[in-house]
């Protein structure tokens, strides 16, 4: 009880309104030191976040969480028969199919990056490695909305687009086109314009379904809350420790593990390889609305 009281006083010290002006640093050194002092589940660092302000941090995330409107995957009795391993990592299960960490650089469209990235992996897994391409998140940004936008899409709009239209390889529609181009109908540079589509969209509600979804088809996309301290994550099992909510993002979940009795998800962010564990992170089950719902689709690979 005394510890709890102490912890909440610490949290108050860093979440008061005075610290949350747009011009303030989103993760001042005192916050980083405090995180590393009050808990030992995860490590905070200034390496990636540097002197980022609250205003800059808010531009890296979405202001609202994507709606959750697809019908539930009908697992029936499958869940009773699937026994989940204590740990699972798609990178070990499908070594050649998990594509590199994305860097959303100036287009913070986690909703599109995690969708394209999950679908790239799922094509490879479903085709046993015969359809192995990095697919274009930029094409989702340029073509799925009424006009190109990094910030206006959602997980739902991304997967709907993958089902209705599909996306080409990343090399066909590079990220550099964002900001200078409308929706392209040819590859840049010229190459066959093949679209990779989704056959059926599934949602997975809650932790066991999300695990079943990854085991049976590969990585899935989730929405999550982003607090100030998440930007400082450098390793270990993340649990929200201090700081305010700055928005939401979407990430690719590739598995789960256990550290000293704490179950955690293994996920890929799209903030480049200098953030977190070479771009990946571990987050405890139940944190930041992470395991409320996941979304993914079955690749339509026979159509290629
Ligand atoms: C942050 O700002 C301080 C003070 O202006 C400066 O000394 C430091 O080099 C900056 N750090 C980074 C990572 O830019
Ligand atoms: C999948 O690919 C591997 C390696 O190329 C091969 O050994 C295996 O037989 C394939 N499995 C199926 C079901 O095609
Ligand atoms: C796990 O528990 C052991 C024994 O209590 C401890 O020495 C170690 O530091 C813990 N590891 C982490 C990552 O918390
Ligand atoms: C990510 O992209 C940004 C902006 O282009 C760049 O500054 C940064 O170095 C990149 N990070 C990695 C790890 O590639």
Automatic annotation (TrEMBL):
Residue ranges of every copy of the Peptidase C1A papain C-terminal domain listed in the record: 84-298
MF term (GO), any: cysteine-type peptidase activity
InterPro entries xref list: Papain-like_cys_pep_sf, Peptidase_C1A, Peptidase_C1A_C
This protein's UniProt keywords: Signal, Zymogen
Pfam families: Peptidase_C1 (PF00112)
Keyword Ribonucleoprotein: no
GO biological process, one term: proteolysis
Signal peptide location: 1-15
Family: Belongs to the peptidase C1 family.
PANTHER family, alphabetized: CYSTEINE PROTEASE FAMILY C1-RELATED (PTHR12411)
Protein name as annotated: Peptidase C1A papain C-terminal domain-containing protein
Organism: Blepharisma stoltei
């Amino acid at each position: 009880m005394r510890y709890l009281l102490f912890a909440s006083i610490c949290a108050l010290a860093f979440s008061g309104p005075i610290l949350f002006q747009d011009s303030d640093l989103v993760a001042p050194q005192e916050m980083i030191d405090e995180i590393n002092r009050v808990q030992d589940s995860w490590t905070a660092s200034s390496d990636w976040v540097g002197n980022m302000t609250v205003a800059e941090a808010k531009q890296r995330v979405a202001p609202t969480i994507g709606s959750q409107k697809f019908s539930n995957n009908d697992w029936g009795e499958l869940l009773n028969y699937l026994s989940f391993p204590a740990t699972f990592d798609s990178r070990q299960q499908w070594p050649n199919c998990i594509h590199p960490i994305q860097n959303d650089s100036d287009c913070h469209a986690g909703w599109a990056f995690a969708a394209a990235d999950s679908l790239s992996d799922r094509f490879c897994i479903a085709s046993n490695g015969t359809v192995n391409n990095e697919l274009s998140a930029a094409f989702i940004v340029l073509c799925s909305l009424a006009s190109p936008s990094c910030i206006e899409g959602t997980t739902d709009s991304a997967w709907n687009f993958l089902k209705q239209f599909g996306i080409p390889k990343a090399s066909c529609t590079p990220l550099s086109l964002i900001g200078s181009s409308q929706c392209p109908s040819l590859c840049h540079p010229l190459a066959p314009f093949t679209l990779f589509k989704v056959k059926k969209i599934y949602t997975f509600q809650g932790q066991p379904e999300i695990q079943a979804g990854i085991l049976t088809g590969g990585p899935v996309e989730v929405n999550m809350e982003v607090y100030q301290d998440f930007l400082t994550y450098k390793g270990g099992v993340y649990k929200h420790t201090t700081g305010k909510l700055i928005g939401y993002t979407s990430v690719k979940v590739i598995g789960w593990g256990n550290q000293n009795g704490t179950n955690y998800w293994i996920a890929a962010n799209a903030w480049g390889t200098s953030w977190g564990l070479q771009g990946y992170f571990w987050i405890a089950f139940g944190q930041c609305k992470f395991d409320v719902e996941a979304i993914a689709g079955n690749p339509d690979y026979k159509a290629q």
